Amino acid sequence: MDNVRDTKMHDEIARFLDTHVVRTNPFGRNTSGEKAYRRAERIVGAIHLISNHVPQGEPVREMARAVALRLLSDILLLRDGMRISGSTRIRRAHATLRHLISLVRTFTIAGYVSLQNAEVIVEALDDLGNFLNVSQRSGFADRITISKDDLMPVEGQIVHSDRSASVGLKSISDIKDRSISDSVTVKDKSGVQLKGESGEQFSPRARAVLDVLRLGGQFGIRDIASNLPEYSEKMIQRELVDLAAKSRVVKTGRKRWSKYSLA
After folding, report:
1. Is-above-0.85 flag for pTM?
2. Which residue segments constitute the domains of the chain, with CATH numbers given?
């Protein structure tokens, strides 16, 4: 019965959210804000669907729907202040997410919603909160500007195969100040490429994934993908498997609850 409800819920959400692309985007180049809003939109739709099983007149039904709608407003308010340290708007969004988690759990305790459906929505709410935390530390949360000086050759012939924006660098000059590591390749006077101190060589995609993980904390595949829009989640997953095999990344959890951090 739960599987039937899950399938129906997915179909109902997809029917209205996946049939066409909405071109109106108040977030501009704030890709993290746009992704957060799309997630919130799906979660709000799911909460309204499961609350249909709660009898009308139950206070928890109306409260859950009202708080869910408030979440959309909270995320919209982040379009210009996603990276502000100590932002009251970020804290408000987190408070709304935590409130919704409690309300969905109440649905289950009262016997109105299946445990399976509730777990899926609670996990989605928790992931959205983690996504907001990651976005605060990511260069993709706001506009990236490049000056003329950034495009000038760097002394020492340090070569980095990734775009500086993809790893959250303020400018290419930041690469010059970095210590030589596995994410940087250096040419000697003869033009021969040398390995980093670790003796390992990584693909540009693997180095980009490692740079995201260096922000600190644990990240899901979606969190990493949101910071690397040029790569698909499947591509990032393959890199994580390889990095875990090389003991550069630690994986915790299973399946969609998997989280990754630097070893």
Report:
1. no
2. 2-141 (1.20.1440.60), 149-262 (1.10.10.10)
